[in-house]
Specification:
Layout: H1 4-20, E1 33-34, E2 41-43, E3 46-48, E4 76-81, E5 95-101, E6 106-111, E7 117-123, E8 125-131, E9 139-145, E10 149-152, E11 157-162, E12 168-174, E13 182-183, H2 184-189, H3 197-204, H4 208-216
Helix pairs in contact: 3-4
The protein binds 2-acetamido-2-deoxy-beta-D-glucopyranose.
2-acetamido-2-deoxy-beta-D-glucopyranose binds at residues 69, 71.
Keywords: Apoplast, Disulfide bond, Manganese, Metal-binding, Secreted, Signal
Subcellular location: Secreted, Extracellular space, Apoplast
Binding site for oxalate: 107, 112, 117
């Protein structure tokens, strides 16, 4: 039999995960974000437009049919559709991206600190994966084809690699209006100012020269 304490603990855990798993729940139908606080209400970190002044364009974004420019060292590009592009997403806990991949293009290992992601391939084929947290650090991977979907749990390091000889396209939904992105290589070796090479040499168990070379590289992010 489950004791009263256990029951309380389980209830608390269930509630805590419900409350903390995504952006805060909205307290109103919507809260279209505006920069100008004059005549506005302040909710969940942004100013809301007067709901009576909200218009269709606040909830609208055009152009996701257009491929992103993948002419870069990674051969991929993310086109975001989050609260920055669609102010009506404010407080609603959801957003979207389009990702284009040149042949053998890579969306390099990265995490979203605030969102789980579900990605669907609409063209081509992708080798995707994520790594579970310590101590297992288990790599979970799959090859995806047109019409396949795959989930990257919140906060975990993940990647997508176009293994086809043709371009690939995917769309992904994310459980935050502002998922955030940390591109691992760029954050570690391309931080501003740089992390001390003593720190990185020890952390990566390599010679400082290796670290210096990595830090001298140009680290781009595609989202
Ligand atoms: C794509 O990006 C490359 C590199 O920045 C640039 O040279 C090229 O003009 C861009 N292509 C288009 C179609 O915008």
């Amino acid at each position: 039999m489950v004791s009263g304490h256990m029951l309380v603990a389980f209830t608390f855990l269930a509630l805590a995960s419900f409350v903390l798993a995504s952006d805060p729940s909205p307290l109103q139908d919507f809260c279209v974000a505006i920069d100008e606080p004059k005549d506005a209400v302040f909710v969940n970190g942004k100013f809301c437009k007067d709901p009576m002044l909200a218009k269709a364009d606040d909830f609208f974004l055009k152009g996701l049919n257009k491929p992103g420019n993948t002419s870069n060292q990674l051969g991929s590009m993310v086109t975001p559709a989050n609260v920055v592009q669609i102010p009506g997403l404010n407080t609603l806990g959801i957003s979207l991206v389009r990702i284009d991949y040149a042949p053998y293009g890579l969306n390099p290992p990265h995490t979203h600190p605030r969102a789980t992601e579900i990605l669907q391939v609409v063209e081509g084929s992708l080798y995707v994966g994520f790594v579970t947290s310590n101590p297992e650090n288990r790599l979970i991977t799959k090859v995806l084809y047109e019409g396949d979907a795959f989930v990257f749990p919140v906060g975990l390091i993940h990647f997508q690699f176009n293994i086809g000889k043709t371009p690939a396209v995917a769309f992904a939904a994310l459980s935050s209006q502002n998922p955030g992105v940390i591109t691992i290589a760029k954050a570690v070796f391309g931080s501003n100012p740089p992390i001390s090479d003593d720190v990185l040499a020890k952390a990566f168990q390599v010679d400082k020269k290796v670290v210096d070379r990595l830090q001298a590289q140009f680290w781009m992010d595609i989202n």
